[in-house]
């Protein structure tokens, strides 16, 4: 099309990865690869696929086999998104605790804008059950394809097709100087690995303060995850928050030591005065 | 999705028909039916299909078999579009005589607008050769899916999926009188007074932890303000954050008291033992 000047060497086509979690049918992996290739995306991650590599994946990939050759297979979602700074998970259901929810178009515009500067992940769940809540809570935002409620069972490769298509449309609009909204910032955003480390530090600290009972911290930690995931923390903000936790832990440590020391001293003095009398 | 109110009884979902010309593989007919069902379209026309009905069509249709039961099979494209007042043909190639060429989005918007009042057809050609020039010249406009030039061979069912998806997005936006957008949340946003109280509580706590020197907390507090102001905290999130500060302050208060008490006791014991000796 004369109005469209696709540029598949553009960074954004390389910087957006498709992450498929626990895929059961290799045919869907192939279908996803073909959809990506059709739309110009190149980076495919598989988290603990049930059957891969598999001839059916290559067959379904049609012209997209090269994406299967360069696929990255990992054991956990954390590994697949560790270096990503925008993670968007596909969600079919409404959540008890609603997360920021994007339309496919909003998701694509955001991904195009941010993939100019850092890596972005679109995360897809299992054919039957989608993503777990724990997996969805690792995402900055969720995207929902508003299918026909009477039959909303989108095939996995179809869902990948729809988001890759929207991404391509936004990317082409961006290359034509189309509208894209992205605010400059003084600090780079924190990556997912650093965020996970913060959540663990936070949980330990809140337990040390007996704010969380080690038993069921779930709801509260989920709300805190939603809070900090949607804020898109930058590196300096994250280091301030880590610093506050460290200061808290140091305080706990030093006062505990001091109390222990005082109690020891007290005990030995009592002993001495008992012996004297 | 509570924000999306799809209305598949709306005229436009009934008035837009998908026309497949000379389809070779029954699997693609089934795939097209599933894509239509997913997106809420109901009217499928087949022009001289090579193999239909066929078990593979039903198998690929998954939940969309009902569309296959009500499918209309005709011999010529003319019959399939006779009563339509807007006919849009899919075109992969640029034409010697350029026709009005729409993007999928433009095609969907036009179809939604016109299907309020009359019938609309999206026409798809053969898997291998698409539509003939003669067939394309029966169309009011052409639509092109700008796929990756390096691999633009869209599967027929995929092309149907993309146009039905765009149609659904435009239809939902039309029904809502606006674009699909997320705006509901489970908690009301915190008001400014509550936020200011939080910042003060936070500042005092960070000074008690000697994380901030009472002298110049400026930079850090400013960054923390920016962080929590841009997140748009809701009431429950704010009460969790206040709860953490309260737990921290309680810890500081109790340990300080305990240390003070221990030191008193120690001092008096020392006095007593001095008097005895």
TrEMBL record, chains A, B:
Its EC number is 2.1.1.200. GO terms for molecular function: RNA binding; tRNA (cytidine(32)/uridine(32)-2'-O)-methyltransferase activity. It is found in: Cytoplasm. It comes from the Bacteria. Transmembrane segments: none annotated. InterPro entries: Alpha/beta_knot_MTases, RNA_MeTrfase_TrmJ/LasT, SpoU_MeTrfase, tRNA_m1G_MTases_N. Coiled coil: none annotated. GO terms for biological process: tRNA nucleoside ribose methylation. It catalyses: cytidine(32) in tRNA + S-adenosyl-L-methionine = 2'-O-methylcytidine(32) in tRNA + S-adenosyl-L-homocysteine + H(+); uridine(32) in tRNA + S-adenosyl-L-methionine = 2'-O-methyluridine(32) in tRNA + S-adenosyl-L-homocysteine + H(+). Keywords: Cytoplasm, Methyltransferase, S-adenosyl-L-methionine, Transferase, tRNA processing. Residues 16-165 form the tRNA/rRNA methyltransferase SpoU type domain. Belongs to the class IV-like SAM-binding methyltransferase superfamily. RNA methyltransferase TrmH family. Homodimer. Catalyzes the formation of 2'O-methylated cytidine (Cm32) or 2'O-methylated uridine (Um32) at position 32 in tRNA. This is tRNA (cytidine/uridine-2'-O-)-methyltransferase TrmJ. It comes from Halioxenophilus aromaticivorans.
């Amino acid at each position: 099309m004369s109005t469209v000047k696709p540029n598949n060497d553009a960074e954004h086509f390389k910087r957006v990865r498709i992450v498929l979690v626990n895929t059961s049918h290799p045919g869907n992996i192939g279908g996803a690869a073909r959809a990506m290739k059709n739309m110009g995306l190149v980076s495919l991650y598989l988290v603990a696929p049930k059957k891969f590599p598999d001839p059916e994946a290559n067959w379904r990939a049609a012209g997209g086999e090269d994406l299967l050759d360069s696929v990255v297979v990992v054991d956990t979602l954390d590994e697949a998104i560790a270096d990503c700074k925008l993670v968007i998970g596909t969600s079919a259901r409404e959540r008890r605790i609603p997360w920021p929810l994007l339309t496919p178009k909003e998701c694509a515009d955001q991904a195009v804008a941010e993939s100019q500067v850092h890596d972005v992940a679109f995360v897809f769940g299992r054919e039957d059950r989608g993503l777990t809540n724990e997996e969805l809570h690792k995402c900055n935002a969720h995207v929902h394809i508003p299918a026909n409620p009477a039959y909303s069972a989108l095939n996995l490769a179809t869902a990948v097709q729809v988001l890759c298509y929207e991404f391509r449309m936004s990317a082409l609009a961006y290359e034509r100087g189309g509208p894209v909204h992205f605010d400059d910032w003084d600090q780079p955003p924190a990556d997912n690995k650093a965020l996970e480390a913060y959540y663990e530090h936070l949980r330990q600290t809140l337990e040390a303060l007996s704010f969380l009972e080690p038993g069921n911290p779930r709801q509260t930690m989920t709300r805190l995850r939603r809070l900090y995931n949607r804020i898109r923390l930058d590196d300096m903000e994250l280091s301030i928050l880590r610093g506050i936790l460290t200061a808290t832990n140091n305080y706990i440590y030093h006062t505990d030591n001091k109390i222990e020391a005082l109690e020891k001293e007290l005990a030995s003095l009592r002993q001495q005065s008992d012996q004297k009398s």
